Amino acid sequence: MRFRSLNPAVEPKYMGMTGVETKMYNVLDIDKAGDWIGICEGELDTITLSACIGIPCVGIPGANSWKKHYTRLLADFERIFVFADGDQPGKEFAASLARELPVTVVQMPDGEDVNSIYVKYGSQYIRERMGLNES
Questions:
Q1: Which is it for the CA torsion 24, 109, 81, 29, positive or negative?
Q2: How many C-beta atoms lie closer than 10 Å to residue 3's C-beta?
Q3: Phi/psi at 112 (nearest 5 deg)?
Q4: 3 pLDDT higher than 70
Q5: Nearest to 105 by CA among 115, 95, 118
Q6: What share of the chain is helix, strand, coil (3-state, %, to 5)?
Q7: Which domains occur in the chain, in start order?
Q8: Does the pLDDT of residue 1 top 60, yes or no?
Q9: Three-state DSSP class for residue 4
């Protein structure tokens, strides 16, 4: 279980319960996905991609929370999109996944994440950044 800080000045933004191991979020999308899936940092971005935009996605609760066995869970997908937050930890997260899996990085602009971009520009903007242009 994780909690969001109500004060935007407090770091980290998300906190977990002491002694509780982090887990991959939204794993049911692994079964629902077709040939491709998304990975992003954070539960809120995962919900935005999966529920609001319709992109099957799993979430990692923090840029440093990747576990080796996650690679095996996603190894059979033909294409994996990594939605990288527009900050240094987000870029490092995407780079580390690129060493583990054949990924396509969808880099968010500086200071932005999936949810903030969705609020500003809508789902089509994110789909276009993925190369999923729809008429």
A1: positive
A2: 10
A3: -120, 160
A4: no
A5: 95
A6: 40, 20, 40
A7: 22-130 (3.40.1360.10)
A8: no
A9: strand
